[in-house]
Amino acid sequence: MGIVLRHAMHSDSIPARALATEWSAVGIERFPKCEREPDCVAIGSRLRGPMGTRPPAAFWPQLWATVVRSLLLKKRDTRKTLAEVLVPLYSLGVLIFLKMLVPNPNFPEVRKPGRLLRIHHDVISDNHSVAVVADWDTANGTLGFLDDINSLLIESGQHPVNWIRYNNTTDLNDAYHNDAKTFPLAVIFHTDPGAYGEPLRYTIRTNPSRDGGTPSTRTLTTSPAKCRERTGFKDWSSDWSRGGQLIPLSEMHREDTCPVLQYYYTGFLALQTLIDYVKIKMDTGTRFFPPRVDLRQFPKRQHTGDWLVIFRVIMPMYMVMTLSQFITYLLMFVVGEKEKKIREGMRIMGLKDSVYWGSWFLIYAVFVTILSIVSTVLLFTLKVFQHSSYILIFLLMLLFGFTIITFAFMLTPFFDKARTAGILGSFAVNLMSGLYFIQVFVSNADSLAFWFVSLISSSCYALAMDKALVLDMAGVGVTWDNLWSGPGVPFGGSLIMMAVDTVLYGLAAYWLDAVVP
């Protein structure tokens, strides 16, 4: 009934003192502990502790209630919650777009020679025209030399060349500027080609506005990355009686893919061989047909382009920025409750510290798991990773997310302002990830240094992501077979170190929360 009778007055025949004694005896019998403790509250109350306090609540009911409370807080602040979800996905989309724009810097070994290209001496230009500059007054043998070229072509069953004569290079340049897009190939004779036994000097000019021109003569070699790949091509000519097929430049190579092939496609080689053959024929007096000239690309060794460094500098750090952005909002939530004394009030009401940290960890662990799944699907669907194991990449991102959660917990004791904590926490994660540059720019670094660097989770994640990207672009990828191989910290070692970092950061957070006021 909740009433303690210490003095009772009764008007019946039973004396009041006896009635009071009887009720007191009943109270002592029913609540012996209550009568012996002066601070006990009313009879029938469920509170048993001193000063009316409840006994400590169980862990799991507190955890469930705190998780529900934290979810309601995040639901109430819809703007921050949406930013936590959408900003990482947007950043990841930008990264994938950049990856798709830049070509793969790894070129595999080419063992099989390229497609056969045969020079057809009459295919100099579309209209079989060539501009000629010569001293027509004194070099009387030029016209006869040009006629001999056409005679050679006609005898071999090929189309003759239409020679367009110019008196000097000034007239040639004026004609080119008047109609640059359709101006044909040009040859400038510096000596009389018809002079017997005299050296032949001439210059061939290609049209850069029409065919892209020929490569610069100052560049002696091209990059090993070029002259490797072919785009899909179609048969441009099926005239096998002429010894092969012509494949237009647009169907086989681009100008910047293999610059040396411009000598073939502009007609430079065809005109050069015609002039040289006719000169040899005139000086030797030997009658012969132009020999067959075939072009074929050599096999090439494996090559890695210089722009691989761009991948290794940008992508791992950008991946750290993408997956660690939620630390800003996590710190703002936790430090904000500390700033407003909300957590202190919950602690006074009996909330355990382990329950408080555990509730936030559970909420963000679910968020990190979903984010890692979506990120893995995007990375593999859009071909950022093509040869790696999707399970290993997922584990890498998942463990990194867990380390970010506990790292945020470790930082909270040092901040009293939520906004400051959010900004500096994100900055610290991104700044410390720069230590992975040791793997990019320092050759023959001690592997022990990489293990120490891996104690910083963002650097450990960047090291593992850099290794995964390099292996995947090389066509190998990160698989269960090479999980423990490679210089420095292997990929499997990075996974273990991030699991260790999660535990270390969690213990440090619990200790700092109890020590730092």
Describe, in plain words, how this protein is organized in 3D.
It is built from 20 helices and 8 strands. It is mostly helical. It has 3 domains: 1-55, no CATH class; 62-97 and 305-515, no CATH class; 117-298, no CATH class. The strands form 3 sheets. The chain has a 4-stranded mixed sheet with strand order 4-3-5-6. The protein has a two-stranded antiparallel sheet with strand order 1-8. A two-stranded antiparallel sheet has the order 2-7. Helix 5 (141-155) links the parallel strand 3 and strand 4 (162-166). The longest helix has 29 residues, at 353-381. It is elongated and about 115 Å long.
Outline the fold blueprint.
Layout: H1 16-30, H2 32-36, H3 59-76, H4 78-101, E1 106-107, E2 117-118, E3 129-133, H5 141-155, E4 162-166, H6 169-178, E5 185-189, E6 202-205, H7 208-211, H8 249-252, H9 262-265, H10 268-284, E7 294-295, E8 303-304, H11 308-323, H12 326-339, H13 342-348, H14 353-381, H15 390-411, H16 418-432, H17 437-441, H18 447-453, H19 457-473, H20 491-515
Parallel strand pairs: 3-4, 3-5
Antiparallel strand pairs: 1-8, 2-7, 5-6
**Could you tell me the strand content as a percent range?**
5-15%
Q: Biggest sheet: strands side by side, in what order?
A: 4-3-5-6
Taken in chain order, the helices and strands follow as: HHHHEEEHEHEEHHHHEEHHHHHHHHHH
Shape descriptor reads elongated
